Protein: THAP-type domain-containing protein
Amino acid sequence: MNPRKSCEICKTYYYAKNLEGNIFMASFPTNKERCKLWVKIVGNKALAELPLIQLKRKLICQNHFTPHDFNHNKNRLKRTSFPSQNLTRPPLDDTLLESFPKPFTKITENEMKLNQYKKKCEQIVQLVQHDHNYVSQDGGVLGHGN
Ligand SMILES: [Zn+2]
Structure:
């Protein structure tokens, strides 16, 4: 089965094969200021929380652009184009975009689990060292008492 991609505005799913077919899907701009504008227009707060690296994997389908937004081959958007048609939400308030873009942090769920695991390892190491100290102290008393 082909992987499906959904449009961030109308939430319609399209099969990836359509990327080269009838349905054009635009990824978010990599340019910070233009990406911010798109996020503002799309009006989804959750998108404002994503770092650029994740936003550029998000897609907007062709139904949100006018014919003038495309180049004359109709296979690319013009650099300055932004979604303007069939919008489903009001634009985001600028205060929500004050710290846009969010920095890319690698603290994912897996990373957190790894950190917990590391902490446990450190605790075990401390316990072992603690035990070892006991042994060597005892050993010291027994072995070098005289
Ligand atoms: Zn759409």
